[in-house]
Design a protein that fits this description.
CATH superfamily of chain A: MetI-like
Helix content of chain A: 55-70%
Order of helices and strands of chain C: HEEHHHHHHHHHHHH
Strand content of chain C: under 5%
Distance between the termini of chain A: 18 Å
Shape of chain C: globular
CATH superfamily of one domain in chain C: MetI-like
Shape of chain A: globular
CATH class of chain A: Mainly Alpha
Structural class of chain A: mainly alpha
Strand content of chain A: under 5%
Radius of gyration of chain A: 23 Å
Chains: A mainly alpha, B alpha/beta, C mainly alpha
CATH topology of one domain in chain C: MetI-like fold
Radius of gyration of chain C: 23 Å
Largest interface: A-C, 108 and 106 residues
CATH architecture of chain A: Orthogonal Bundle
CATH topology of chain A: MetI-like fold
Order of helices and strands of chain A: HHHHHHHHHHHHH
Number of strands of chain A: 0
Number of helices of chain A: 13
Strand order of the largest sheet of chain C: 1-2
Distance between the termini of chain C: 10 Å
Largest sheet of chain C: 2 strands, antiparallel
Oligomer: heterotrimer
Chain lengths: ~280, ~425, ~290
């Protein structure tokens, strides 16, 4: 806190709470929905809790619940989602930070071309290139595999772009100092650059994890083996009812459960955020 | 000594299990979500348990559109499943891909599976048969549009029975409005209920060439006076409050659930859902209205839903399994159970009779309206079904134009003229890709 | 990019960048090339009959009034989403940065929307906006608005804009906050001693210093609005009523993925890629000049 301005601070809190209310409204709705009978949603959107209490959650988490179609217990699906999300996150962050490092701190032939090619990936959502991508995956024998599930999702440019932005703010003096000290590029990377990037890495970790966690179209397309079912695929299948009853309370309960791991990741990353603060005190 | 015995037993068991069960695995890609998906799994599991040669593996692949696109992407990569569930609007595309599909009648003949096409309800299979009456795909979940009405609101307005004709729709709705209803009727899936089935019910084709069955050189005709008058009437009703548009697909249902509108038209398979959502309200089911200035006795309606297509590129062992599975699916017991659980139509006479015998229709009033609507008359060329290439896009076009009419932006004639013109472009484009 | 002092190695950077390049080539460039080829063809869905038609797909697009009007719809949609998402997130993060207590709480709660699976988010907002049973619909009726997104194009547009913006606010908030928190406290302290209030400090110190992140978010939001929003439109309005919410990317998705008109969809993708590439180059050349590195 730089100075004491209680009124302004109060104002900030009020605005933030209003912001949370506005933005969290659908999430609140989802939570409330888990406590109502499904038929309630035909005639209104309940804003307060209903009679079912935690029953739906209990049913979902009980060990003999045949979750949807895959006959996979919900824990198995959460596990699949987790593996997928972690692999994508670690993979994406690793290759992106290396690419950004290469593009910003070195001069090599084809540098700009490489940067634009990578950047280009932002502009092609998977649905648009679905047929050829499916063929590529098949030719590489990657259907029904974790590598097929994760590798195509690793390369999009957001992380590279963000790291590039951040690296460009690193003062020249730092590099000069490192060179004078006799540090090569690798030492510079690990001893200086990586610690400085902590905040960005933490933010990207959260975003990428959630991105990987919420994937459903890609896994749906390239897997036929129920083993690989992720939790969001499960949710989608419950929603996908054309002529019958939609089991809203079950869907919302699963959504809430599915939201917890990303939220845990956010909380776990808080330490990195704070540490990043301290480190930038030059 | 003891260990030897155990090892021996284990070895023997392993040998036995690997030798006896070389089951042929058959993939079935489907779009059934929610409880329907669980039912699909049940059917497959029961079939698998009933014999040991074949194993059907149902795989959920998303919505109808996602499933179809997946199957096509897989086909292009030579990874297609043996069976895929395709919605009715995809029929022309599937039919046109002669090198990719294995017509059901041919499959049954080639695998020497017992198959009698006459057991099937012609109104249901008509959609999926060729001009010579040969079945191309196996109907699986077929629905048809019916009229749902709020008996309580009717009683309140002093109306005794559901309207049978469109003229009565107007009169009944006006009475309902006078008694305090917010609107008389709404509808879902407007292209399906107000254009395609309007034509079928009143025995009027919506395109030449027998609604597209005759070949690819088809032209739409649903901008003829019969259709225009209907849409124009609905447009007038939209202004007076008799009719309220609720959105594409089934988004209009809340209007019926909340008792704003007393009548709606939608899929027969929606009955269970409607009853569950309106537990304390008396809901009735009636046949879709017809225009008594066009026909004296209404025709059957066209089906919706999906069918199962068989794709080429698999072994003859797998195809034998598919044929056996199709026989299993068509058996009276399985069909009756599926029909009763889902509200989709039974595809065979036997299943219908069995359901009747089981007293299902008596215990669940309204569940036989759809079947009766389909079986009381013989389908004509105008009510057998439709076969249009790229029809999914044409439905979108019709949706867009009709929305303009309901919003009062365009006249019924202009809207239907536009839709016909753009729809014909879609037909021509499809024609060009079929060589 | 600014001229930067770097390291002299030639092979190390190539080694570092090659994993990403490889994946990019195989999973993006190759399919993009296929899309370009497909845009010149007329084929059936299964690929069993292919006819080379040159620029015909492109020409029929430009003769289609629906396609041309979707340019305007897209612009309207993307600008609104990007601006709303950026401004609200920036304000919220500025507030969150100022306070010391509770920032973990706010950060956790404001990220929840992003954690909701998009398929479910669309369903939830559809509920809220439903003209018959939705809370927002009821509130608007109280104020005299006849909320009807199934017939009123403007209402439908607002509906998809707000839903698409919603998710992005969390995303932007997270990055803005990270950026704001890495502005050295010493600068703020010095300015405060000079008498600058928090708002002035934000405008003169924080905002310029976070410009690399702002630029990043500007591009990402814009790209998101242009490319990733078809799922919401598909779930809520399917481009209707009467094409009022049919954006360029929605048409690509609807014509290609749903309608299986691969040639036209590919042609539309090519046009879209060219458009965004152009806009990105413009952003990099002109807007980036204002970014402080």
């Amino acid at each position: 806190m730089i100075e004491r301005r209680p009124l302004f601070t109060l104002f900030c809190h009020v605005m933030l709470i209003l912001g949370i209310l506005a933005i969290a409204l659908p999430v609140w709705l989802a939570l409330v929905a888990t406590t109502h009978e499904n038929t309630v949603f035909a005639t209104g959107t309940p804003l307060w809790f209903g009679d079912l209490g935690l029953q739906v959650f209990k049913d979902l988490l009980s060990s003999d619940s045949r979750f949807n179609n895959s006959a996979l217990p919900i824990t198995h699906m959460l596990f699949n989602s987790f593996i997928m999300a972690m692999t994508i996150t670690i993979g994406k962050l690793s290759i992106s930070i290396l690419s950004a490092y290469a593009v910003v701190f070195f001069r090599f032939p084809g540098r700009m071309l490489a940067f634009w090619m990578i950047f280009f990936t932002l502009m092609l959502p998977v649905e648009v290139r679905i047929m050829p991508t499916f063929e590529v995956i098949t030719n590489l024998n990657m259907l029904n595999s974790f590598s097929g599930l994760t590798i195509p999702l690793i390369a999009s440019a957001t992380a590279t772009f963000l790291f590039r932005q951040f690296f460009l703010t690193i003062p020249k003096e730092l590099i000069e100092a490192a060179r004078i000290d006799g540090a090569g590029p690798i030492k510079f990377f690990f001893d200086i650059l990586l610690p400085l990037s902590r905040t960005n890495i933490a933010a990207l970790f959260v975003i990428t994890f959630i991105y990987g966690w919420n994937q459903y179209l890609w896994p749906l397309l390239i897997t036929t083996d129920a083993q690989y079912y992720t939790i969001v695929m499960g949710i989608k299948q419950m929603l996908d009812v054309v002529d019958g009853i939609v089991e809203w309370n079950k869907i919302m309960a699963t959504t809430i459960i599915a939201m917890l791991p990303p939220v845990i990741v956010v909380i776990a990353m808080q330490k990195a955020f704070v540490k990043g603060l301290v480190d930038t005190e030059k | 000594m003891y260990m030897k015995k155990i090892t021996g037993a284990v070895v023997a068991a392993t040998l036995m299990s690997t030798a006896a069960h070389a089951t042929t695995e058959i993939e079935w890609w489907h779009a059934m979500g929610g409880t329907l998906g669980e039912k699909v799994n049940e059917i497959a599991a029961d079939f698998n348990a009933s014999q040991s040669d074949y194993e059907i593996k149902p795989v959920y692949k998303g919505t109808y559109a996602e499933t179809m696109t997946s199957a096509i992407a897989a086909f292009r990569a030579k990874q297609q499943p043996a069976i895929v569930q395709v919605f009715e609007v995809g029929t022309a595309t599937m039919m046109g891909a002669k090198k990719a599909i294995y017509p059901v009648h041919q499959l049954m003949a080639d695998t020497k599976e017992n198959f009698n096409p006459n057991r099937y309800l012609s109104a249901v299979t008509g959609y999926y048969t060729s001009n010579e009456g040969k079945m191309l795909s196996m109907p699986f979940n077929s629905s048809t549009p019916v009229l749902y009405y709020n008996k309580d609101m009717f009683a309140n307005a002093g109306i005794k029975s559901a309207p049978k004709t469109w003229k009565e729709m107007g009169e009944v709705s006006q009475k309902l409005l006078d008694a305090g209803a917010h609107c008389g009727f709404t509808t879902t899936w407007q292209s399906w209920t107000q254009i395609e089935n309007f034509g079928a019910r009143n025995n009027i084709a919506m395109a030449d060439n027998n609604n597209g069955f005759g070949g690819l050189n088809t032209h739409f005709t649903f901008n003829k006076p019969a259709f225009v008058n209907h849409i124009r009437t609905m447009s007038d009703w939209s202004k007076s409050g008799i009719y309220k548009y609720g959105g594409r697909q089934s988004t209009g249902m809340p209007l019926f659930y909340t008792q704003q509108c007393a009548i709606t038209m939608g899929s027969s398979a929606g009955l269970a859902g409607i009853k569950a959502n309106m537990k304390d309200i008396n809901v009735g089911v009636a046949q879709l209205p017809y225009d008594d200035s066009l026909v004296k006795k209404p025709q059957n309606t066209i089906i919706g839903g999906a069918s199962l297509w068989v794709l080429r590129g698999h072994s003859s062992a797998q195809y034998k399994g598919v044929a056996k599975f199709f026989s299993y699916l068509s058996s009276a017991a399985v069909q009756a159970d599926w029909h009763q659980f889902t509200g989709y139509l039974p595809i065979t006479q036997d299943a219908y009779q069995l359901t009747k015998k089981q007293g299902f229709y008596q215990q669940n009033p309204g569940t036989d309206v759809a079947v009766k609507q389909m079986t009381s008359v013989t389908p004509t060329v105008s009510s057998k079904g439709i076969r249009f290439g790229n029809f999914l896009q044409t439905r979108d076009i019709i949706n867009e134009q009709l929305e303009g009419v309901w919003a009062g932006k365009i006249s019924a004639q202009d809207a239907l003229d536009n839709a016909v013109k753009q729809g014909n472009e879609e037909l021509r484009r499809f024609q060009r890709t079929q060589k | 990019m600014s001229s930067h002092v770097g390291f002299k190695n030639k092979w190390l950077p190539i080694a570092l960048i090659s994993p990403q390049l490889l994946i990019t080539l195989v999973f993006f460039i190759w399919p993009a090339g296929q899309a370009i080829i497909q845009s010149t063809q007329l084929e059936d869905a299964f690929g069993l009959s292919t006819e080379f038609v040159g620029l015909e797909n492109f020409i029929s697009l430009f003769n289609d009034s629906n396609y041309l009007s979707s340019f305007f719809t897209t612009l309207q949609f993307s600008l609104t989403v990007a601006i709303l998402a950026l401004v609200s997130a920036l304000m919220l993060s500025a507030f969150a940065e100022h306070i010391t207590r509770g920032s973990t709480f706010y950060r956790t709660f404001l990220i929840w929307p992003y954690a909701v699976a998009p398929v479910v988010a669309g369903a939830l907002w559809l509920f809220l906006f439903d003209p018959t049973i939705g809370v927002i619909g009821e509130l608007l009726a109280l104020v005299g608005v006849d909320w009807n997104p199934v017939l009123n194009g403007n209402h439908a547009m607002w509906m998809v804009v707000i839903t698409s913006t919603w998710k992005q606010i969390s995303y932007n908030f997270l990055f803005f906050l990270a950026a704001l928190q890495s502005v050295p406290k010493a600068l703020h302290e010095a300015a405060a001693i000079d008498g600058s209030g928090p708002i002035k400090r934000f405008l003169t110190i924080s905002f310029p210093l976070i410009s690399p992140t702002s630029f990043f978010l500007l591009v990402v939001n814009f790209v998101y609005a242009f490319f990733d929003t078809f799922a919401v439109i598909h779930a809520m309005t399917q481009g209707g009523p009467s094409n009022s919410t049919s954006t360029l990317v929605y048409k690509v998705y609807n014509d290609g993925f749903i309608g299986l008109n691969l040639g036209s969809s590919a042609a539309q993708s090519v046009i879209l890629m060219a458009l965004v590439a152009l806009l990105t180059v413009v952003q990099f050349k002109y807007v980036e000049k204002k970014v402080a590195y």
